[in-house]
């Protein structure tokens, strides 16, 4: 409908009085009525090819026994039934959600603190603001490799520092808590600054008068933060929560690089840190169970949708 | 009126899409000059460049193009896509033995090489290598063997000297006729306190012992999962656990950065090394460690790990020419040339006995006579049947062993888990 707004009155046809030659009338009709659709078509065509079609096709594959030899028998929802009884799948769900919490909650809290600090009058403010977003420009792989060394069992820096306090070296890949911590650290390190920048932009659009009025009323800085800043930047918070959730559900590269070795895709000897997307990749491209891998992919999609809705409802309720 | 433009648009979109598909899907097997282009898909290094030139010279009208993907891990998903899509696999594909065993369940995707006169080539291959690529009834041959991962035991002479053990490869080989002797040597080595562990990780040693345990491993020859009833598997497991319990393992995952570094800084003194691993060891240890590594015979009776085949996919449009090329590349002459080029150890008895292979010494490994050591190892080996999900099951058993090394599971718990994982995988 926006189309009619943009082009003044082409749709409501003028009185039919001057009948132009037929050909001309047809072309102009095509032009006025259909060319707007043509202009916006590229997005939809590309989305259909690269978004919708793969989604549907993955669903189709997931209903089949599909291995190295190509499409096998149609087996309906068998893959999904197996999936629900598959402890490795649920383990991956728990791991993904666990790391999601560890990597999102501290990250967003820290980002908010950082943003409010950067919102003050400080020396070298631009430099500091640029500094916090610097980690985003490093490649995920580089972050993975460096942090894998920092959290190495034999020669890692963290174990070295712990050694100074007579703490025995930790095999970071051997336990859930330790591997989750290491991986969440990578994610937090990379994305905190990005979220801080979003919060900062939102904070700068809050009218100064509100704070002045609050100060006159005797509200402390903390109180001002809680009662003015947070409610005023709520849309940004919702945005960052949803985006972080989606990214967290797709966590792949960091744990994969952290895993190392020839069978890194299993995320540790007992799948301590195997995420959902790693499990999907393992089933489809390591075990060559393409149908099952597709079923996992669809479950990831559904879980993300579910989480996004929950996020949305929770964050909206506060309004 | 509204319908027509929509149709036109639809037609245009469909036409564009078709054009695009045609453009990417063609594959262009035939060159413009009317000759035949054969596309060979390989991973890692097959060392065929000179052979291609020779073949093109003796077969006018045939052009060979090799598409190489460096890592096996990157090659497999691609291969899967080509086979599933029914196009893109070219005319000759390289299949690693684990992946071949998965394809053996569906041999119809490949041309039966027996239809192209491969039958008479049987004496040219080690018996078990031939059997790996033929169906149980022998009516169909999927691939022709290229190389085999012949086993040796690589060891650090400097660390052995430090621990007061012999360093000469004959004497070292005499230390461990069996794996129990290997264990005893490991204890001696550990007691000497060099700071290094005896071997890198349980997974590699286990794989080696397992391949020495008779004619099948996780599957019997009728493709029934027998991981929990085959005494050979359990024996390999127990032997490996004994080595781990003695504290001989450095517990460093193979192909991890720590493993690569371990070669350089001498974190482990021995490693069971298939012939194709020598290149990796040389690269990771670096020139500064030249002459510190040496190769001795492996404990037990021979063993192989890895090795590949060439096959002609059914989707090839030049099956006859492709089969001829595969036969040429896997001939004794072809295998010898590949060995000279990239150290891929031949699976042809004639090539193994060829002086060019037999007398080959590796300067990096103290001039070790690797041609002879690996040749003896290969000939001593009995054929081993690998079932369809051999590789994924191997991955899971390896993980269970790692969990034991990490102290996360007791050996019994880990065994139960490995068996359970394998059963769930196979369903």
Notes on the structure:
The complex is a heterodimer of chains A (319) and B (427). Chain A is mostly helical and 319 residues long. Helices cover 71% and strands 3% of the residues of chain A. Chain A is built from 14 helices and two strands. In chain A, a hairpin with a 2-residue loop joins strand 1 (64-67) and strand 2 (70-74). The longest helix of chain A is centred in the N-terminal third of the chain and has 41 residues, at 22-62. The model of chain A is unreliable at 1-7 (pLDDT under 50). With 427 residues, chain B is of the alpha/beta class. In chain B, 47% of the residues lie in helices and 13% in strands. Chain B is built from 19 helices and eight strands. Chain B has helices at 3-25, 49-58, 72-85, 97-103, 127-132, 157-162, 169-175, 179-191, 202-210, 231-245, 257-265, 277-285, 319-329, 332-342, 349-353, 355-358, 370-379, 390-405, 411-426, and strands spanning 36-43, 62-69, 92-96, 143-156, 197-199, 268-274, 293-296, 304-311. In chain B, strands 1, 2, 3, 4, 5, 6, 7 and 8 form an eight-stranded mixed sheet that branches. In chain B, helix 2 (49-58) links the parallel strand 1 and strand 2. In chain B, helix 9 packs across helix 18 (390-405). The model of chain B is unreliable at 1-32 (pLDDT under 50). The A-B interface holds A 26, 29-30, 33-34, 38, 45, 66, 68-71, 82, 86, 88, 145, 148-149, 152-155, 171, 173-175, 260-264, 266, 269-270, 285-288, 290 and B 1-2, 5-6, 9, 13, 76-77, 80, 83-84, 86, 102-103, 105-106, 109, 253-259, 261, 267, 389, 392, 395, 398-400, 402-403, 406-409, 417, 424-425, 427.
């Amino acid at each position: 409908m926006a189309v009619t707004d943009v082009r003044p009155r082409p749709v409501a046809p003028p009185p039919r009085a001057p009948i132009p030659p037929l050909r001309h009338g047809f072309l102009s009709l095509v032009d006025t009525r259909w060319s707007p659709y043509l202009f916006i078509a590229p997005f939809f065509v590309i989305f259909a090819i690269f978004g919708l079609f793969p989604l549907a096709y993955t669903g189709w594959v997931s209903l089949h026994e599909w291995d190295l030899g190509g499409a096998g028998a149609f087996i309906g929802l068998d893959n999904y039934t197996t999936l629900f009884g598959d402890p490795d799948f649920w383990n991956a769900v728990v791991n993904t959600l666990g790391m999601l919490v560890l990597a999102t909650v501290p990250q967003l809290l820290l980002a908010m603190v950082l943003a409010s600090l950067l919102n003050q009058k400080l020396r070298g403010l631009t430099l500091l603001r640029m500094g916090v977003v610097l980690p985003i420009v490093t490649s995920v792989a580089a972050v993975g490799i460096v942090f894998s060394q920092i959290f190495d069992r034999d020669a890692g820096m963290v174990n070295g520092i712990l050694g100074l306090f007579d703490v025995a070296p930790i095999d970071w890949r051997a336990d859930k808590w330790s591997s989750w911590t290491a991986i969440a650290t990578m994610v937090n390190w990379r994305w905190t600054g990005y979220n801080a920048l979003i919060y900062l932009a939102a904070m700068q659009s809050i009218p100064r008068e509100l704070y002045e009025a609050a100060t006159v009323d005797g509200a402390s800085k903390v109180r001002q933060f809680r009662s003015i800043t947070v409610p005023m930047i709520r849309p940004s918070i919702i945005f960052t929560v949803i985006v972080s959730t989606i990214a967290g559900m797709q966590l792949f590269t960091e744990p994969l690089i952290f895993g190392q070795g020839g069978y890194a895709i299993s995320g540790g000897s007992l799948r301590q840190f195997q995420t959902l997307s790693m499990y999907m990749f393992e089933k489809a491209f390591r075990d060559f169970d393409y149908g099952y891998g597709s079923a996992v992919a669809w479950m990831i999609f559904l879980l993300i949708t579910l989480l996004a809705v929950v996020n949305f409802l929770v964050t909206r309720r506060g309004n | 009126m509204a319908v027509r433009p929509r149709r036109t648009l639809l037609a245009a979109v469909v036409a564009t899409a078709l054009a695009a598909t045609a453009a990417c899907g063609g594959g262009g097997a035939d060159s413009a000059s009317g000759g035949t282009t054969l596309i060979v898909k390989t991973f890692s290094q097959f060392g065929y460049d000179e052979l291609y030139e020779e073949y093109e010279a003796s077969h006018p009208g045939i052009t060979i193009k090799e598409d190489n993907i460096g890592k096996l891990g990157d090659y497999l998903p691609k291969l899967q896509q080509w086979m599933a899509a029914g196009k893109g696999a070219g005319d000759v594909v390289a299949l690693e033995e684990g992946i071949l065993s998965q394809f053996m369940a569906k041999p119809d995707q490949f041309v039966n090489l027996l239809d192209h006169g491969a039958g008479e080539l049987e004496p040219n291959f080690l018996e078990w290598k031939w059997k790996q690529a033929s169906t149980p009834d022998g009516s169909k041959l999927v691939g022709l063997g290229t190389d085999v991962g012949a086993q040796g035991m690589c060891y650090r002479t400097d660390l052995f000297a430090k621990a007061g053990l012999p360093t000469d490869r004959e004497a070292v080989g005499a230390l461990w006729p069996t794996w129990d002797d290997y264990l005893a040597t490991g204890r001696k080595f550990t007691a000497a306190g060099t700071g290094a562990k005896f071997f890198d990780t349980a997974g590699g040693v286990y794989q080696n012992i397992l391949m020495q345990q008779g004619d099948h491993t996780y599957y019997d020859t009728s493709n029934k999962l027998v991981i929990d009833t085959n005494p050979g598997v359990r024996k390999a497991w127990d032997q490996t656990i004994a080595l781990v319990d003695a504290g001989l393992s450095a517990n460093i995952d193979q192909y991890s950065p720590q493993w690569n570094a371990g070669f350089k800084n001498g974190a482990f003194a021995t490693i069971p090394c298939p012939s194709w691993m020598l290149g990796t060891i040389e690269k990771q240890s670096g020139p500064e460690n030249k002459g510190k590594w040496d190769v001795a015979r492996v404990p037990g009776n021979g063993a192989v790990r890895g090795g590949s085949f060439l096959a002609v996919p059914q989707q090839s449009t030049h099956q006859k020419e492709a089969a001829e090329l595969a036969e040429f590349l896997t001939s004794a002459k072809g295998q010898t040339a590949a060995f000279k080029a990239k150290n891929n150890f031949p699976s042809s008895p004639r090539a193994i006995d060829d002086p060019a292979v037999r007398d080959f010494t590796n300067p990096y490994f103290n001039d070790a006579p690797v041609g002879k050591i690996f040749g003896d190892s290969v000939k001593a080996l009995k054929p081993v049947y690998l079932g369809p999900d051999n590789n994924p099951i191997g991955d899971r058993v390896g993980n269970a062993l790692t969990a034991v090394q990490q102290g996360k599971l007791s050996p019994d718990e880990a065994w139960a888990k490995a068996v359970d994982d394998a059963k769930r995988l196979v369903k």
